[in-house]
Amino acid sequence: MQYSSERVKQIPPYAFAEIKQEKEKLIAQGIDVIDLGMGDPDLPTHKHIVDKMKETLDDSANFKYPNPLGLLEYRQAVAHFYKKQYGIELDPETEVLTLIGSKEGTAHLVPALVDPGDYMLVPDPAYPVYEKATLLANGKYYKLPLLEKNNYLPQLSDVPKDVLEKTRLMFLNYPNNPTTACVDVKFFQEVCEFAKENNIVVAHDSAYNMVTYDHYKAPSILEANNARDVAVEIGTLSKTFNMTGFRIGYIVGNAKVIKSLAVLKGNVDTGQFMPIQKAATHALLGDYSCIDEYNEIYKERLTTVIEAWKSIGIDVEMPKSTYFVWAKVPEGNTSAEFAKFLLEKAGVVVTPGSIFGEYGESYFRIAVAVNTDRLKEAVERIKKVL
Ligand SMILES: *Cc1c(COP(=O)(O)O)cnc(C)c1O
Questions:
Q1: What b/e sequence results for 164-195 when a residue is b if at least 16 CB atoms lie within 10 Å of its CB, and e otherwise?
Q2: Total H helices, total E strands in the chain
Q3: Cβ contacts of 13-20, under 8 Å, gap ≥ 24
Q4: What CATH code would you report for 62-285?
Q5: What is the chain's Cα-based Rg?
Q6: What is the pTM of this model?
Q7: Which atom of ligand 1 is least distant from the CA of 176?
Q8: Contacts of residue 92, Cβ cutoff 8 Å, sequence gap at least 6
Q9: Which amino acids bring their CB within 6 angstroms of ligand 1?
Q10: Mean confidence (pLDDT) of the chain
Q11: pLDDT by residue (tens digit) across 93-117?
Q12: Nearest 5°: phi and psi at 123?
């Protein structure tokens, strides 16, 4: 009997799940653990969004199978967001598709576009799903190292010709998790030109597009000229509206790519629960002051952590976006050893950079997912054990 395919055997369990398990073990022992690991902040989903969801629960028509492409009103709301935020017109019927969170869309996009043996360009360090989805689709990947000395931008001219000939898809993510790097439209323009020259679809993950500070406005890849010839953008309400558990996102851009993903998804899932789509519609159509309100809180937390780190000799810059601090591990430790040390000795969870790929080694990531007092306590505890 075969209980696992070769495809599944080659991938380890989702890395964050393991850290969570370790943390729960300590909590069961009565240890007060401060979790700065996973990017899932403590702040609640905004009340007007939850109220909208409650309202929809009184109508049982909302409990039926949804349209697998997503409610048209939700896709229109996504189009409204693109118009309002970037001045981009999207056709809600052909250029917008609902996702059950961007993780789901990312994982399914790969088999929708890539055949076994085809290559993908995958940044490193990066959100682990790009690489794992490639392996699950029996694809191959070529890593684009994101190095500090290059401001964490990929050096596309370094990709070998023979790899490019077999490459179908590349992933990018700015504002970037985990490095917090940001880009401008000019960068996206260059990427789109590179992609067009080499017949590669670009999938840009815009998870942190609205989590920004000090008036920084993160661009959409669709702002680049002729972007829709080659690009799609995968977005989520998880980070924008603190809706991580709702599982609602979208993919926009190239209509052919979206059609292919829709065919695949139509045979795998049946869309997202309508009350969730309606709550998400309400969020996208509303005013976005609630986003600013939370961004102020993240900014204050980031400032607190960065000042505290400085006092223990770890120097990091204030990011323009995301709720992460990406910092160097003290000399002489691997990132996994350092994370284990902090968890066991200080009861603080941080994410070892190695989870994001080999080029993440020697860094660790902190998410400001707890309030300022807890953050200060975490740094105090770390100070004591270092
Ligand atoms: C959080 C995150 C996601 C996941 O978003 P969901 O819509 O909740 O699946 C995707 N990409 C990046 C880079 C993230 O940090």
A1: beebbbbbbbbbbbbbbbbbebebbbebbebb
A2: 14, 12
A3: 14/128, 14/132, 15/128, 15/355, 16/351, 16/355, 19/339, 19/349, 19/351
A4: 3.40.640.10
A5: 21
A6: 0.96
A7: 13
A8: 72, 75, 76, 78, 79
A9: 39, 101-103, 127, 173, 177, 205, 207, 236, 238-239, 244, 249
A10: 94
A11: 999 999 999 999 999 999 999 999 9
A12: -65, 155
- Measured in whole angstroms, the distance separating CA 129 from the mean position of its chain's CA atoms is 9
pLDDT tens per residue across span 252-294: 999 999 999 999 999 999 999 999 999 999 999 999 999 999 9
Contact 174, 202 (CB under 8 A): no
Quick check: 272 and 250 in contact, CB under 8 A?
A: no
Which of 16, 98, 102, 298 to mutate for ligand 1's pocket (most ligand atoms within 8 Å of CB)? 102
Q: Which fold has domain 6-45+289-385?
A: Aspartate Aminotransferase, domain 1 (3.90.1150)
pLDDT at 14 over 70: no
Q: What DSSP state is assigned to residue 230? A: T
pLDDT-derived band at 15 (thresholds 50, 70, 90) equals: low
What are the angstrom distances between the C-alpha of 84 and each of 173, 211, 241, 289, 332?
A: 21, 16, 16, 14, 49
CA distance 186 to 174: 13
Domain ranges of the chain: 6-45+289-385, 62-285
DSSP helix/strand/coil, 277: helix
pLDDT at 314: 80
223 neighbors 189 (Cβ within 8 angstroms): no
Q: Is the pLDDT of residue 19 over 80?
A: no
Q: What is the DSSP letter of 46?
A: P
CA-CA distances (angstroms) from residue 349 to 44, 141, 294, 340, 378? 21, 30, 23, 8, 9
What mean pLDDT is predicted for residues 171-199? Answer: 98
* Residue 10: per-residue pLDDT: 86
User: How close is the Cα of 130 to the center of ligand 1, in Å?
Assistant: 11
Model pLDDT for residues 315-372, shown as the tens digit of each residue: 888 999 999 999 999 889 999 999 989 998 999 999 999 999 999 999 999 999 899 9
Residue type, 384: K
Assess contact for 232 and 202: CB atoms under 8 A. Answer: yes
Tell how far the Cα of 235 is from the centroid of ligand 1, in angstroms: 8
Q: How far is the CA of 102 from the centre of ligand 1 (A)?
A: 6
